[in-house]
Amino acid sequence: MKIIKKRNALLPLELVCLSTMMLFSALIVTQISASPTTTVYAYPSAKTVTVGQTFVIDIRVSDVIDLYGWEFKLGWNPNILDVIDVSEGSFLKQGGSTFFWQKTNNTVGYILVDCTLLGNVRGVNGSGTLASVTFYAETLGSCVLDLYDTKLVSSFEQSIPHTANDGSVTVSKSVGGVIVPVSKFELLAPWIGLTSTIIFALTTIFAFVKRKKKRG
Amino acid sequence: MKKRGSRKTLVWGLFWFLLIILICYAIYSFSLSNVDTPQASSLKAAIVDHLSLSQPNQTFIQTSTNILETAGFTVDYYKGEEVTVEFYRKLPSYGYSIIILRVHSTATEAQGTESPVTLFTSEIYSKAKYVSEQLASQLVSVSFSEEERERGIRYFGITPLFVSQAMRGRFQNTIIVMMGCEGLDNPLMAEAFVQRGAKVYISWNQGVLASHTDLATTHLLQHFLLEKRTLIESLRETFEEVGFDPVYESLLIYYPFDAGDCTIQNIMGDLNPDN
Description:
The structure holds 2 protein chains of 2 kinds.
Chain A: H1 2-34, E1 39-43, E2 46-50, E3 54-75, E4 81-88, E5 98-105, E6 110-117, E7 124-137, E8 141-154, E9 163-165, E10 167-172, E11 178-180, H2 184-215
Parallel strand pairs in A: 1-9, 2-10
Antiparallel strand pairs in A: 1-3, 3-6, 3-7, 3-8, 4-7, 5-6, 8-10
Chain B: H1 2-34, E1 44-49, H2 58-70, E2 74-79, H3 85-90, E3 98-102, E4 105-108, E5 114-124, H4 131-135, E6 139-143, H5 146-150, E7 155-158, H6 160-166, E8 175-178, H7 188-195, E9 200-204, H8 210-226, H9 231-242, E10 252-255, H10 264-271
Parallel strand pairs in B: 1-2, 1-3, 3-8, 8-9
Antiparallel strand pairs in B: 4-5, 5-7, 6-7, 9-10
């Protein structure tokens, strides 16, 4: 009987402990789910350029852990832009020697780029630039820089979950122009010519009439 | 003797005839350049869309028209082909309270030297046309780019002298939003508009992209006409939202400098004949 009573007295304490634990575990779960996720993204995300301009878009990664290799495809409207260069960023090089490979197709409008660390080394942590893509703006228009088929791999050959964010480019044109100088003499030239012709014609007629009168 | 007298009469007659023609022409020209045509009682705004020929943007036209109409203005739209020398000549006489000049403009000569701000027309340049205006430097020849200049594609451009000397009528405290490049690279065009009766002239201090000027102007109209902020507040807000032009790093400024405190209510008060 005494034991039962004691058990009953302990029950509220157990409940408090249990609810505290539940609260803590809920907090931990919330913290984990709110932790920053790994993102592969185009930077700057929106770029405005003028026709004929060359510009660079970086493909960056943020908040990654143990990155050993990566791959992505980037698509664009080939009528508006052309890729003229793709180069490796500095991020993965922090881990050691790398192998970088890229294939550009300006007709369809996409690049396939991949890169991996070499040898038995640990992956790289943090945020940085994976690759830099240099574009040339051909004509007016807007297009999305579609980042797709992105892959991040850890040193344990595990796929790293991540999100990919596209970019966009607007090719615009200035609303200016140039003043083309025209000399005043050029403007007056036809009038000077016309006046000269009339004066010449009148003088000739006058001289002709005078000579005729003299003869008569 | 008789023959000599009749010749003298003929010469005098010709002289008086020419003099009368000359006086009549002078009076006609003077009356055309200074006449104040009657103003409409309703508030009118114009969108002069010269850029519709090279950089059309229907979204901008629709949005700015909506803003102007919501603010109580009747909006007239002029497409690129209508932006001729004669259109600019008559512009003050139409009685607009707000004129949005979505036009090409420049303050740069082909050799790169600076010159007064020039607004483009869509009228093809000819040395034989508007000769007196060309000799008076009211009209000049302009091209959209060096490449077009080399290909011989040129248009008439209007200079500040055209605004101050060759336009007909006067603006009635009109707000001029000049969306083209370098509109306030130097104040000559702004001064000419203000001398002809404009209240304020807003434009870019350097070159600007079509997309950026459209974006910034929409924001400016929103703040100035709908939120009824002062001009300087509206420009500041616009700058905070859209920043410098991404390529030319230009920003919208205004002339004269004492117009910064004006609001659309002040200006509408001045404009509305009932007030």
